[in-house]
Amino acid sequence: MTVVSLSKARKARARDAATALAAENRMAFGRTKAEKVQAKSEATRAARSLDDKRLEP
Question: With 90 as the cut, is the pLDDT of residue 52 above it?
Fold first, then answer.
C-alpha cells in the first residue's frame, strides 16, 4: 500500500486537465494568418459555386 498526498494528486489532476485544454485550444485557435485566409477563400469559392448552380424559377 502506498501513501498518496491528496493535495499533490489533486494538483496533478488539475495540471493534466489544463494541458488537455491547452491542446484543444491550440487546435482550434492556433492557425496561422495564411491558413485562415486560405480557409476563408475556399469557403467563399464554395459558396459562389453553389450560388452559380442555383436554378431560378
Answer: no
